[in-house]
Design a protein that fits this description.
Blueprint lengths: L1 H47 L2 H6 L4 H9 L14
Helix pairs in contact: 1-3
Length: 83
């Protein structure tokens, strides 16, 4: 009986903590994958814009290409949604 209580108190808690941490890591990975997908879509949209549309948002074709070539850009395209 004493061993079972010890086991529940010490191992049960650490197992629970492990799964909580694991769940948070999976959630963070999912959020990172969603953000990466968003950025990929934004890059494609930027390439599809004509020169007039680019001018409306303060860019030219060279700027747009430079941003698209930088695969790890972060908030540069905040005009398309959340950062």
């Amino acid at each position: 009986m004493l061993i079972e209580q010890y086991h529940r108190q010490h191992w049960g808690h650490s197992t629970h903590s492990f799964w909580q941490g694991f769940g948070r890591r999976l959630q963070n990975l999912w959020q990172w994958m969603e953000r990466f997908s968003q950025l990929s879509n934004h890059r494609q949209q930027l390439l599809e814009m004509d020169d007039h549309m680019l001018k409306d948002i303060g860019l030219n074709r060279t700027d747009a290409r430079r941003m698209v070539e930088n695969r790890w850009f972060g908030g540069e395209l905040s005009i398309f949604g959340r950062k």
